[in-house]
Design brief:
The complex is a heteropentamer, with 2 copies of chain A (302 residues), 2 copies of chain C (259 residues) and 1 copy of chain E (282 residues). Chain A is mostly helical and 302 residues long. Chain A has 11 helices and 2 strands. Chain A is flat. In chain E, strand 1, helix 2 (69-80) and strand 2 (88-92) form a beta-alpha-beta unit. Classes of the chains: A mainly alpha (302), C alpha/beta (259), E alpha/beta (282). Bound molecules: adenosine-5'-triphosphate (ATP) (2 copies) and magnesium ion (MG) (2 copies).
Chain lengths: 302, 302, 259, 259, 282
Amino acid sequence: MAALSHREGAGDPPAPSRVLTRREVWLRQQRRRAALIAASSMTAVLLAVVLIVPRTPGWPTVKKTFFNGARFRQDFPDLLGYLWTDVKLFLTCVPFILIWGVALAMMRNIRNPALFPLRAFAAAYTDLFRGIPVILTIYLVGFGIPALGLKGEFHLLWFGGRWNSAYLWGPVALILAYSAYVAEVFRSGIEGIHESQRAGARSLGLTQTQTMRHVVLPQAARRVVPPLMNDMLSLQKDVALLSLLGVYELFRRAQVIKDRTFNYTPYVVAAVIFLILTIPETRLVDWYSARHRRRTGGSQVA
Amino acid sequence: MAALSHREGAGDPPAPSRVLTRREVWLRQQRRRAALIAASSMTAVLLAVVLIVPRTPGWPTVKKTFFNGARFRQDFPDLLGYLWTDVKLFLTCVPFILIWGVALAMMRNIRNPALFPLRAFAAAYTDLFRGIPVILTIYLVGFGIPALGLKGEFHLLWFGGRWNSAYLWGPVALILAYSAYVAEVFRSGIEGIHESQRAGARSLGLTQTQTMRHVVLPQAARRVVPPLMNDMLSLQKDVALLSLLGVYELFRRAQVIKDRTFNYTPYVVAAVIFLILTIPETRLVDWYSARHRRRTGGSQVA
Amino acid sequence: MNGATPKVEIRNLRKSFGTKAHRRTVLHDICLDIGEHEVVCLIGASGSGKSTMLRCINMLEPVDDGEIWLHGTGGAVDLAEPGLDPDPIRRRIGMVFQSYNLFPHMSVLRNITLAPMKVLGRSAGDAKATAMHLLQRLGLADKADAYPDQLSGGQQQRVAIVRALAMQPELMLLDEITAALDPVLVGEVLNVVREMRNDGMTMVLATHEMGFAREIADLVCFLQDGVILESAPPAQLFTEPQHAETRDFLARVIASGRL
Amino acid sequence: MNGATPKVEIRNLRKSFGTKAHRRTVLHDICLDIGEHEVVCLIGASGSGKSTMLRCINMLEPVDDGEIWLHGTGGAVDLAEPGLDPDPIRRRIGMVFQSYNLFPHMSVLRNITLAPMKVLGRSAGDAKATAMHLLQRLGLADKADAYPDQLSGGQQQRVAIVRALAMQPELMLLDEITAALDPVLVGEVLNVVREMRNDGMTMVLATHEMGFAREIADLVCFLQDGVILESAPPAQLFTEPQHAETRDFLARVIASGRL
Amino acid sequence: GDDESTTTTQAPATDAPSTDAPSTDAPSGDAAACAEGKTLEAGMLTIATGDPAYPPYVIDDDPASGQGFEAALAMAVAAQMGFEGDAVSWVRTGFDEAIAPGEKTFDFNLQQYSINAERQQVVTFSDPYYSAPQAAIASADSTLQISTIADLKSLNIGVAAGTTSIDLVENVIQPDSQVQIFNSNADANAALVNGQIDILVVDLPTALYLSAAEFDNAKVIGQFPASAGSEAEPWGMLFAKDNPLVECVNMALANLTASGELATITDTWMGEYTEAPEISMG
Ligand SMILES: Nc1ncnc2c1ncn2[C@@H]1O[C@H](COP(=O)(O)OP(=O)(O)OP(=O)(O)O)[C@@H](O)[C@H]1O
Ligand SMILES: Nc1ncnc2c1ncn2[C@@H]1O[C@H](COP(=O)(O)OP(=O)(O)OP(=O)(O)O)[C@@H](O)[C@H]1O
Ligand SMILES: [Mg+2]
Ligand SMILES: [Mg+2]
C-alpha cells in the first residue's frame, strides 16, 4: 500500500484572493436556501393571515376594539409616560433579588453538616415563596404590614415616603417572591457544575467563597442566562401587580383607558411597549452568550 | 525512612457492632449541633414574632382582616371546592407546554444552516411571548380570537363547549405564553451539556434525534429541574388568570368572598391551599433529584 | 504489509480552527491511504493534530478542504463532502475519544448497550451479553452497574473502549486508548486490537506509546505541526527514519528513555 | 534514600465509597511514611486506589478512619481530623488531577494565575511572569490566551501541571501527569520533577509508567485492591520484589513488553 | 398574578325606591363645625372614587365637575361641611386600596359600595344614599325572549367582580352553568359581544348606561323585581374604620334630605335610569 504526505509550508498559507473551497460553496448554497425558505414561509404565513382573518365574521369588531388606529396613536404617548414608574420599580428590585437569590442558592448548597439549619431555612423559604402566588404575597405584605400601623419615613433610591407606602412594601413583596424563583435558577446552575471543578479550585487553596465566586458562579450564571432572563422578564411585567397597592403605572393606565372606553387597544399598545423594551434586551443577552460560547468553546459537532 | 503496609484482608471487614470511628463521632456531634442551632434560632424567631407583632398598633385589625379564624373555617372547604377547576386547567396545559417547549428549545438548537428559518422562528416566538405580559396574551387571545366570531364546538379532555369558550382559548393563551418560558429553560439545559457528549453519541451512530432523546435531553432535564419547577409552580397559580375570561376558580372565589366581606382571610386560605398543594410537589422533586445525584455522582468535595 | 485495496483514502485534507480573523490551520494537505484490515498508528508531538485527524475521519469536524474516501460495501463515499448525512457512515466507524465522553447519567452497562440497541436494533439481551463479555475481558464485570463518575480513570477508559467495540464497526478510530491503563491492561488491550484486526477491522490509532505502535502497527505516520512528515512500516520508521525531523524526534524519545 | 524526617505520615488510613447498604472499601489500613524532599511513586493496577489515596491526602475525600500527619512549618497537623479547616492546608499542597479539572470559562493564563493572585496575594504581573515562564518551558507559550476546550489532550495536561506548579507548594500530588504526553514531553516533565525535588518539594506520583517511576522515585509503593502490598526503593522493588503478587504484576508487565 | 379588579363597584339589587332617603334620625346640625379638624388634611376634604367612574354616577369620568349622581352628591355633602371649590380634592382608588385595612388616602370613598354587616366590621359606612335594582342586558343582536327568571336558567350568565349581582345570580337565578365573573364592566361587555356569555347582570343604572348609544352593542332585557332582591343592600360612603368624620357626613346627608336637595340631585341624575320592563319571578 502507498502512503503519501505533502508539505507545503509549516505556517499558514497566505490566501488573499483564492478560489472557494467545496465547503465554502456549500455553505453559501445553504445560506441562500435558508433565506429562500425563510422568505417564502414568511410570505405564506403573512398571506394566510392577511387573507383569512379579515374574512372572519367578527373581524370588523376585532379591528375596532383591538387594533384601533386612532386609539393607538392617542394611547401610545400617554402610556409611554407611565413607563418610567415600571422601570424604576423594576430597577429597584433587581439588585436585591439577584443578591438575595444568589445568597439563598448558596445556602442551599452548604455542605457543612453543622450549618444544616441554614440549608433548611433556604429550602423552606423557596418552598414558601414559590408556593404562594406572587399576587397573594403582594396582598399580604403590601396590605398586611402597613395595616400593622408602623410610623415613620423611608428613603430608598428614588422612592421615599411614609412607612406604610406601597412604594416600600410593594418592592419588598416582589423581592421576597422573586428571590425565591431566582434562587432556584441559580441553584440549578450551581448544581450543574461538575464536582471536579470544585475539586480543582479547592485543591489550589481557594476558599469555599472564592471557589463560588471565581469558579462555580461564573460558569453557573452563564448557563442559567435563559431561565434568569425568564424571571427578569416576568418581573418586568409583574411590577404591574403593584398597581393593586395603588401604584399608578403603565399597565394600570392601560386598564383605566380600557375600562373607560371598552376598547382593548391600550392593551395592545402596552404589549408593543413591553416588546420594544424586552426584545433588544433578549437579543443583546443572546448575542453576548453566543459570543462567549464561541470564544471559549471547543468545536461543535456537525 | 520507613514505609509500612498492613494488610488485614482483601475484602471488606465485617463490622457488626464496632466502635465508632473518629469521623462518625464528629458527624454525630455536628448533627447534634445543627439540631441545636436550628431549634434555638427557630425559637428565637418565633418568640420575636409572637412577642413583637401583637404589640404593633394595627395588630387587632390585621388579625381580624387577614387571620380571621371564623372566616378561615368557613372559607377553607368552600374554596377547596373550586380547586378542581384550577387543577384541571393546569393538567390540561402542562403536557402541551412541555412538548411545545421542548420542541421550541430543540428548534433553537438546530445547526443545519439550511434550517436557519426554524431557528429564527423559535427565537422570535420566545422573544414575543416572553416579552408580552401573560395577562395581555390572555386578554388578546381570550377575548380577541372569540371576537372573530368562530362557530362550532370543541372537545378537549374534560372540557368542551363552544368555539369561543374561555376553557378553550384560556388554556391556549397559557400554552402559548408558558411554552416560551419553558423552551428557554430547556434551551439553557441543552446548551449546558458539554459538546463532547454529543460527539460521543453521534460517533456511535445515534441520529440527531436519538442523541437528543437519550443523551442530551435526559441530562438537560435533570439539570433544569429547579427552574422548570419555577415555571410549573407559576403556571399552577397563573391558571387563576383565566378568571379574567370568566372562569370561576379558586382564586376568583376568594376574591368574591373578599369583595363581599372586605376581609382578606380567603386570600390567606388560598395561599395555604396552594402551599398544601405545592410543598409536597417540590419536596418530592427535590428528593428525587438528590437521590439521582447521589446514585450517579462521584464524590463531593468536603 | 497487506491490504492492496485501501479502506480510507485521504486526499489533501486541510483543517483549520478559529474565526476568520484568527485562523490557525492544524492539518495541512494531509494525504494518506489506509489499507483494509490494517492498523495505522499516528505518532507525533502533543498538539500535532492526531486527534483532529481522527475527528475529521469521523465527520465530527467539518474539514476546510480535501477528500476522505471511505470504501466498503456499497461503493465509496467522500466523508469530506459537505452536507453528507453522517449517520449511516458513523455506524460503520467506531471511535474511542481521548477524553472518553461517557454518558454520566447512564450506568456502565447502559453506556455500552445504548447504541447497539438503538442503532443496530439489537435486542436488550443480546446487547447485554456482548457488553458483559467485553467488560469481563477488560476486568470490569463488577462495574457494570456503576456510573462513570464513580470510576477510576483507567476504568472509564476501558468502558469507552468496550462501548466502541460493542458496535463492531468496520473502521475503528482509537485516540490514546492506553493512556490511563496500567501496563498489564495495556497488554490486554494490545491483544484485543490484534484480534479485531484478524477479524477484519481496520484501525487508526493515535498513540504516544512508541512500543505499542511498534508492536501493532502496519504503518506508522509521524505528524508534526499538522503535516505527515513521514509514514512507513514501524520496522523502517523506527530504525531508519528518512526525515531529519523524524530522526530528531526519535532521538529525543530515546534520550528520554521512552523507546 | 534521604529524608530521615517524614513530610507525611499515613497511619491506618481507611476509605470506602457507597451507601451504608453498598459499601466498598477502596483503601484498607494504609500506612506510609513520605520523607521530606522525596519522590514517592504509587504503582498498581487500574482501580487499585492510587487516585483515591492522593485525594485523601489533599482532603478532597473524607476518610473513614486513620490519620494523615502533615509535617512542616508550624508543627504537624492531622489531615484526617474531621472538621479541620482545609484551606490553609491546601495552599501548601498542590495537586494535578488525572482528569485535569481545568476551568473552562477561563483562558489558560487565567487558569494558572487565579490561585497565585487570590490565595497567595501575588500581583497580576508577578503571577503572569511565573505562568509564562512555566508555559514556555512546557511548550505552551502560544496557548496562553486559548481556552481549555480548544486544547489537545496533552496541552490540557500541561496546563494542569503548570497550574499546580505556579502555587509552589511544599507537597505535590501528581496523578498520571504524563498519560497524555508525547515521549519528548515526558522527558521534559521528568526534568521538571527532578528540579522541583532539588528545590525541596516533596512529591507523590501515581503513575503507570514503570520507566518513569524507576527513574525518578525514591520509593515505589505497589498497590493492589487498596492495600500497599510492598514499598521499596525502585532498584529493589523492580528487581527483587518480595511479594508474590508484586512479582506476578511485574512479570506480566515485562511480558507485555512494558518495562 | 391576577389582574385585580379596579372597576367601580356596582350596587346590590334592591326594590327600594330611588327616592328612599337616608333612614336616619341623626340630628341635623352644623356639619361644617363637626368636620372641623377631622379631615385627612386640614381645610381640605379628600373624596375618592373609582378609576374610571361611570355615568350616570360620574359624567365624563370627571368628578370634580360635580356632574353625575355621585359627583353631585359628594359636592353637596362637601358644601354642607364647609368645603367648597378648591377645598375638595378628588382621588382615585382601586377596589383593594379602598377596602384594605390601615390608613386611607381619602376621607371618604363613594363608588356604589353597598353596605353589609361583614363589611362594617372592617370599614365604616355613612348612612345609605341610594339603592338600585338589578337588571339583565344582552348583546344588541340577541333574539332572547325573556319573561321570567326561569327563562334565564339555561343561559351563560356573566357579572362583574365586586358587585352584589353575583349573589342574585347564584341565589335567585341559580343557572345551570356556573356564573362567569369578569374584572370589569368592560371585560364583561366584551364577553357579551363575543357571545361568551348570553346575558350580563348589573345594576339598572349601569345597565341602561351600557345599552346607551355610546357602545351600541347591548340592550336591556329587563330589571329584576323587588322580590328577587337577594338582600336589599343600599349604597353608602366608605370611611376608614371608626373615622369620626362619618358623623359629620351623616349630618350633612340628613340636612340634604331635610332640605330636599338630595331628592333633587337623585331626580336630576337618576331619573332617566329607572325605566325597564320587569322580569317576573315566574
Ligand atoms: N476546537 C478547537 N479550537 C481551536 N484549536 C483547537 C481546537 N481543537 C484543537 N485545537 C488545536 O489544534 C491542534 C491539534 O490538536 P489535536 O487535539 O489534534 O492534537 P493531538 O495531536 O491530538 O495532541 P495530543 O497528543 O496532545 O492529544 C492543537 O494545537 C490544538 O490546540
Ligand atoms: N466516587 C466514587 N464512588 C464509588 N466508587 C469510587 C469512587 N471513586 C473511585 N471509586 C472506586 O474506587 C476504586 C479506586 O479508584 P481510584 O480512582 O483510586 O483508582 P486508581 O488506582 O487511580 O485507578 P486508575 O489507574 O485507573 O486511575 C475504583 O474501583 C473505583 O471504581
Ligand atoms: Mg489528542
Ligand atoms: Mg487514578
